[in-house]
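User:
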Amino acid sequence: MAQNKEKKPVKNGSYSAADITVLEGLEAVRRRPGMYIGTTGPDGLHHLIWEVFDNSRDEAMGGFASEIEVVLLPQNLIRVADNGRGIPVDTHKQTKVSALETVMTTLHAGGKFGGEGYKVSGGLHGVGVSVVNALSGWLRAEVHRDGGAYMQEYAIGKRAAAVKKINGSKLHGTVIAYSADPATFQKIEYDFNKVVSHLREQAYLVRGLRITIIDARASSFKLPEPGKALFIRKELSESPSQTFYFEGGLRSLISFHNRYQKPIHKNLFYVEKEVDGVSVEVALQYADDIASRVFPFANNIYNQEGGTHLTGFKTALTRTLNSYNRGDNGKEGEAFTGEDVLEGLTAVVSVKLREVQFEGQTKGKLGSVEARGAVETVFGEAFAMFLEENPDDARQIVGKALLALKARKAAKAAKDSVLRKGALEGFGLPGKLADCQSKEASESELFIVEGDSAGGSGKQGRDRKTQAILPLRGKILNVERARLDKMLASQEIKYLILALGTAIGDVFDLSKLRYHKVIIATDADVDGAHIRTLLLTLFYRHFKPVIEGGYLYIAQPPLYKIKKGKEISYAYSDEEKAKLVGKDFEVSEGEEAAAENAVVSSEGPEQSEGQEKKTRKQKVTIQRYKGLGEMNPEELWETTMDPAKRVLKLVTIEDGADADRVFDILMGEDVLSRKTFIQSNAKTANLDI
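Assistant: Predicted structure:
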């Protein structure tokens, strides 16, 4: 019988107090920037602007500032100025240095944790401007207050010198100028439209606040000396700029979001009231649409993941409409669900709290429990009164919800029929799908191709183990304004749903996605672009988690096949073609061209010593691909499907509100707005007709 022996611990090296690293100052931010700004990509880069702006915006929310100016300057400089009180510059009792330096160099330091500095603020963690300082190669803080102008400069979060008074000043406010650290960010390139979109929204949320955004990157303007002026827009009058000022607040924001929609009721609902220390402001209007647009804010911070205030709003909306409908009909009817009452709704839900709790530094979700009850109470009571006082509006709103309820029931029947039928026909997989052998979603790819011809080449040229091919016939249904039951009547959409494996609607399940690369591969012509847009609309409206999960791609097939003698090359753009065949070579558009007279000179092999090199001429043949079906299986594999050589574009959603707007314009029924959009963007279009 074996004896039990005591096991001795295995020595894995020493572990003592000396192994504990303490990061001082802002070093933690530089080591782990993603914890504070989410990412070091474009979103994180722009997040720095939001953090500086939020401090100025908080001054305006407190009634201390009326104007904010944001300027994009040459050499990647950003300048944000406000006419608020100015950051205090007197000595801080705890840190023994200027309050300005404390705020700029210490995490969780600010005027938002107690006292009367800020009653309501978005930056309650107190890490905003200090994080910007930590992630900037250079930053200068300029303060005007108490009759003087003060300044301090920093490099990667460390002060260059103590705060100093540079001159007297009758102004009051703060100016922060900085340049993001190139050692931290992957690429420093600002999107002016993104900045404008974000700050426009803020102008709606703070009534009476004037926000000016100036793009002076193309100018020769240099950052002005500190202490001279708060705002510099007069010196930059030739640069592109946008100024926003709204007295209507949330009402104006609703009108802005519905500018391409047709409202179904005349009066716009609005309420603003404080209860139990929580200020609640809600505006809404229903439109003749099937999509919903609900924008939740807490202390003027957009919460893209929702939170307690959004939960309270949805609960009160469903309960109030159900109560009104039953009372109006005088009998118990089938209850509306949250899905029914949200259809066609555009709403903004804004709460302001003294002690706000966000989930994560990027403030994507509100966690404050008291916000739910406050929104339920304030909105529920006011909306019930609105329905009673506006019977015509109420009739239209309830009618919209009833229509959505009927459509939901019809869609459920159609969906159940599709899934049930699919399950009986080959485990839910459509016959047109050439599936891959692998059952591991992480290594499987689905190519959605245009037509049977491309499908045939794809099926022959693919890697059968990991690549599946689904050919679609013609242009799929425009789903922008189509309900689910109508969608499921489309055979091609039905095939795609079954191939993906996620189902659709309320039973959608991303974990059942059968391919972790879903690749749209359409022809490089106008029809192909249209089909691609229709597919993107389908995914954005009904399979958005597939996009958000990073599973949707667009293939980039070559435009040209170039043959020089026995050498074959592929060009993916006209510029690439020009490099391959020579600058002087031109090909007539549209069809295969044999360049009999076009030559490319190259040196022939060396002859015996003393002989001159001879120049030989090559015949160049260029084939312009119009569709994937023109490629044989080998060409399609080599150029578009081979993971080692292909080019894929990942589809992402950078700005949900802007994406909604573009889909509304391009795929909706407002012909005039679509015409205007096309005209204004015609110069940037790459047409190949």
